[in-house]
Amino acid sequence: MSKRSDMADTPSNPVNMHRENWPESYDAQMFPLVISLLQAHEAHHSRAVTVMAASGLSLVEFDVLASLRRSPPPHALTPSDLQRAMLITSGGLTKVLQQLEMRGLVSRSTDDADRRVKPVALTDQAMPVLEKVMSESHTIVGGWIRQSLTGAEIKQLTLLLKKLVNTPSLS
Q1: For residue 87, which phi and psi values (nearest 5 degrees)?
Q2: Phi/psi of residue 122, each to 5°?
Q3: What is the spatial distance between Cα 28 and Cα 9, in angstroms, rounded to a whole number?
Q4: pLDDT tens digit string along 18-52?
Q5: How do strand 76-77 and strand 120-122 relate by DSSP bridges?
Q6: What's the pTM?
């Protein structure tokens, strides 16, 4: 049994603590769901970060490289397009791009049509690093999910999470 499953029966479990110590705000249907989503996110995040760190990448650096890799060849985007794809501040993105450029994982050039635009592109040096991290991440995270859920459960969970993500908020 996993550490998380064992926690469900302990008094320090957030669901039990909330139910016992703040019962007026406890929703027996929603609170366990939200806590489970947060715990699943943390479990995924910790596995993914471990894989990325082994290749010397932070989560945001990997996100930049993966966003570039998802774009059509030559795998280049403007900083504005990257920022929209990643939901990162322009200042934060500038710092990450500088770090990746110093390490030779991205290059910046000037657009001949508009000299103000400096597309960011993956370098040949970045490709094997990115492919290795993605492969290891699929193996570790995918293995963890497949060990926990059946194919039908994965499909059902994916559909349900997409439904949540695509439902407009009430406010």
Answers
A1: 60, 55
A2: -70, 145
A3: 16
A4: 889 999 999 999 999 999 999 999 999 999 999 99
A5: antiparallel
A6: 0.79
